[in-house]
Amino acid sequence: MREAHPVGPLQRGLQVMEVFGVAGGPLRPADLVTATGLARSTVDRVVGTLAETGYLRRQGRDVAATPRMMRIGNLYLSGLDPDGSLARRIAELATALDESVSLAVPDADGVRIVGQSRHSRSVAVAFKVGDLLPAERCAPGPIFAAEWDEERWRAWEGRVTGGTDRPFSIVPATEPAAVPVLRGRVEDFRASGWSIDDQLIEPDLVAVAVPVRDAAGAAVLALSVVSHTSRHTPGSLRAYARPLVTACAAEMEKALTHRRPGGTPAPRTGAGGELKARLGAEFLQSLDRGLAVLHAIGTRPDGLTISEAAAATGQPRATARRALLTLAGLGYARETGRRYRLPPRVLDLGYREVSRLTFEELARPHLRALVAKVRDSASVAVLDAADIRYVARAQASRLMRVEISVGTRLPAHVTAMGRVLLAGLPDTEAAALIARADRQPLTPRTLTGETDLRQAVTAARADGHALVDQELETGLRSIAAPIHAAGRVVASLNIAAPAGREPAERTRERLLPDLLATARALETDVATFATHQPLPF
């Protein structure tokens, strides 16, 4: 690294973010002290800064990563697959083969999973996007190792014989016996064009992989098919998958050859001086600025120069330069010529663990905050045929409350969440669901006529919310708003309150602002999560 004095707060902030990348849940500040070796006062300032800028969330005495941690990784993945064509191809291949399919890139002496499509069997591969595997224990490893120079081979052998110091996912530490084995597997790959994993990654799992090469002939991706020994041997898997895998790899190579560098103009990011002015020395502005630079270089697949990064973030050139050199020295930026771009290692910054969240875990902080404000229960539901199904819920601490649990199903047409979800469908589809629903009245107020229900759904679409007053149960009133992702309604958020003596319109006026604000906040997290991951419903 050319810079003699790296940006210390940025370096320490990335250390803390790395810990959350493998944490598997919330942590106490004391856990971060142990994991990073930093002083408690330093950890507190780093956590405070990351919490103020939205990367972390305080949960009592614990601290948890938020979906904002996924944004840098999303930028890297979007640069790799800007139009989603690679993801579509591996999904189609997995469906055609009825096996799990992965896409990987080289990451130093490891292999990073950047795409995954699983089959629907109960025994499924547990890899997630962002997982890092040792080259010697997986099918893509020999493909990338075939292009290592002697310096890289020596570094890898040192890692294997000296014990692992990388945050490999799932796979146990590699034994020194792997050194001759990997070299032999590389030779086998060079001879056949296929790389095989015969239960190296895990007992009973077999995999085959082929390279996806760029215009210069370098293996930039590895396309793998993974199966179980109850279905295939390595040889039978290769024979079975060969035609479709070969065709898929050729299509990917063609797409890479014709891809042009693109991306959106880098927005000015970072908290600026407002938080520094308010929080003083407790806010690490150089950490915030460094993360802004990291975001900026991810907005273009071909990266940014120092001057472009400075302009994008509104920082002095010298400030942006120090941040870029620090990021490059830590392996979180890759310098090519005069340009800096994101490497796959940025997926270590919380992406893997946040992407493992269930929807209930994703929604829980928002629901708890909403319940604390309005003192009524709140829930999130999705449409499941003609019903709604509850996927997250926070209960109010009241003597009179609605007792509903996650997994409960209710008729969509008679609930506020259901009408919002129906409003997110095309008119013909919503009308068909209403027509075949069991529209028996549940209370004297229940709407049962098809025309009335279609009008209620149309009103929910126009208003952006729905209120249902004692149609599901006498004494229960509910108001709901949609949650969008990828341009469509994917879920609905509601507040359920006792009807009492308060007029319905007064309930709407009282609850709607907080409901909409929470829906937008949850929607932001859902959109971030769903950029390169299936929603965990």
Describe this structure in words.
The protein has 537 residues and is α+β, with helices and mostly antiparallel strands. The chain contains 19 helices and 16 strands. It has helices at residues 8-20, 29-36, 40-52, 71-80, 85-97, 140-145, 150-162, 178-192, 234-257, 274-279, 285-297, 306-313, 317-329, 351-354, 359-374, 416-423, 427-436, 450-463, 504-529, and strands at 56-59, 62-65, 100-107, 110-117, 132-134, 195-198, 205-213, 219-228, 334-336, 339-341, 377-384, 387-394, 409-411, 466-469, 476-485, 488-498. The chain has a six-stranded antiparallel sheet with strand order 5-4-3-8-7-6. A six-stranded antiparallel sheet has the order 13-12-11-16-15-14. Strands 1-2 form a two-stranded antiparallel ribbon. Helix 1 (8-20) crosses helix 3 (40-52), helix 12 packs across helix 13 (317-329) and helix 16 (416-423) crosses helix 18 (450-463). The model has no long low-confidence stretch (mean pLDDT 90).
